[in-house]
Amino acid sequence: MDSQVLRTELARFRCTFFPAAAAQLRTKDLISITRSSSVLKLYFASKLLRFGSLQRTQTSAAAIMAIPMNGGDGLYSYTKNCDIQKFVLDACQVMIEEGIDHKLDIHASAPKAFLVADLGCSVGPNTFTASQNIIQAVNLKYSCKSFTNGESTPHEYHVFFNDHATNDFNTLFTSLPPERQYLAAGVPGSFYTRLFPRDSVHVIHSSYALHWLSEVPSEVININSTAYNKGRIHYRDSGMEVVKAYSAQYAKDMEIFLEARAEEIVGGGLLMLVFPAIPNGTSPSLCTIGILFDLLGSCLMDMAKLSKVSEAKIDSFNLPMHTAFPEEAEKLFTRNESFSMERMEEIPFLNPAKNGTVTSSYYYDHVRAVTEGVIESHFGSEIKDELFEHHYLNKLEEVNHILRSPKSIMLFVLLKRKVVN
Ligand SMILES: C[S@@+](CC[C@H](N)C(=O)[O-])C[C@H]1O[C@@H](n2cnc3c(N)ncnc32)[C@H](O)[C@@H]1O
Prior knowledge:
This protein has 14 helices and 7 strands. It has helices at 3-16, 19-22, 27-34, 39-63, 83-103, 126-144, 169-174, 240-264, 288-305, 311-315, 326-335, 360-379, 384-398, 400-403, and strands spanning 113-119, 156-163, 183-188, 201-207, 265-277, 339-348, 409-417. Strands 3-2-1-4-5-7-6 form a 7-stranded mixed β-sheet, with helices on both faces. Helix 5 (83-103) packs parallel to helix 6 (126-144), helix 9 packs across helix 13 (384-398) and helix 12 packs antiparallel against helix 13 (384-398). The protein starts with a helix and ends with a strand. Residues 1-62 have low confidence and may be disordered. The structure holds S-adenosylmethionine. S-adenosylmethionine binds at residues 64, 67-69, 82, 85, 119-122, 126-127, 162-164, 167, 190-192, 207-209, 212, 214.
């Protein structure tokens, strides 16, 4: 077998498939299959490898932890408890408009279909607002500065709503705004894998989703590790080793996320990300989001003391969530060579309660809508009412004074796909 052919085949193979899956195949696998080969054997070997790699992609996607928000439209549904996220979206609207106006670089001719994607869309209504904001901004841009060929707006818009396959897409689709200006499609799957064809999407947006990791770092639930996070489900008050394990997982995930998006976004297209963060130099123990989720862990421990839950079950559970520092996130974004970072803004964690006072019940509804599903799937449904209604609500009231002066922020990050010649 010609070694040059082999190298080319291997390179093509590595580029064709999602790198994380392809990386699992060793060069020697390919060599051993193709060593004695005729052209025909090489052909079948590469087909086999392709099949294997797709299977591996699916396996690694299946290993990704899914934590969908509460579906439906009940009391603790995400639909009814997403004001915090809506507030953030509203705060970012001007930056989204400015980003599209100043940085979106698609100008030769109006694309037949302008593709927008919202990653981690959940069940709405925020995802509809985000998509509408983007489309309005694109329309406005091209009605003022038309494409080089004189056309003034894209022909059609196509919006892709992405979330884990277990997301309540039925609720999402049945509540699509009837007057929308776009065709809609759902894309199930983790955003830590490839979701769209190469070079196809013009703007990708994601809000309040990127703090969810692809998985819990294995060390934190490994009894033999120095990063074992015993008795906790969040790293807010844990030792440095635990914090480092979370930070390393975040870096790994962000690299995979950006590599996948770099494949999908057209040159000159935009990636707009909004996610929770913690101000540089602040101790994770003061982070509002950390406090909210750590408190849930301490309620579980209280229930373990009452023999309502096994302690071992708590030790084997951690939330796959990381709240990054701006400097930490910036390093990861600027390290990626496919995008240029055009803007990064810190948004204060605003008080979204309608009467201006954040009450414990306000946070209660929010945390319940976000975590009830995952708690149920690990601990069973029988503990959830006591956990939330008795323990969690009481503890939240005890820390209400701390929650009134939040120490979390949101980050708005605008990345532009570099044009490859
Ligand atoms: C708090 S909701 C945000 C929903 C919406 N973007 C908003 O701003 O209201 C976070 C969503 O991200 C989704 N999510 C988390 N990790 C994900 C992943 N790896 N792939 C796709 N969706 C993910 C969750 O399932 C959840 O629906």
